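JOB MANIFEST
job_type = single_chain_structure
chain_count = 1
residues = 206
[input]
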Amino acid sequence: MNKKQDSAQQRILKSAVKEFAKHGFWGARSSRIAKGAGINKAMIFYYFSSKENLYRVIIEDTMKAVLEDVRKFIMKTDSPDKLFEALPEVYIRFFSKNQLLAKIMIHDLVQNPDHISAIIAKMFKQASFKPQIIFKEMVRDWYEKGIISESDPVHVILNIMPPSLFCFIGLPMVEAVLDRKIDINDKFIEDRIKSVVNLIKRGMLK
């Protein structure tokens, strides 16, 4: 692939991320993606074959990075307090760098949750590393040992993921309530990580 082709693909991906973040998969238009990328609409289908495949590439390529980080932390974690420190940090740092992806996911979870869920489920099934299986075993073991108060991995994940993600979606509402502008800078990220970790540890560690 030459540099011109690579550049066209990258422009399409960048434009598509913005389009999907603003309109969701179902509201996104290939014509607007093409216009944003400065290319003919036919080029989208030349490189990605369909809007669906373009969307899938964006989700999979971006999520692979966070899954690898999750894998590293789970493999070296031997206690819930370490896991409850690691996962919020992974997710918060990841979404702080990929805020448009957070908006894309929220759009799809509202408009058609089965769509994005199917993409992510396929990623987990195809991965050689199965974090979901190890995670379930960890939660069961820690609960049986009386280390954590929550026995259901569903609720453990729900206690970790939403507070790690929501700040990048719900911040405008918080700004409106408090009548102040909040910058997502390095200090905000560090403070958010500490706050979420504290919340999770107080709620689930015995």
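[summary]
The chain has a mean pLDDT of 90.
The radius of gyration is 19 Å.
exit_status = 0
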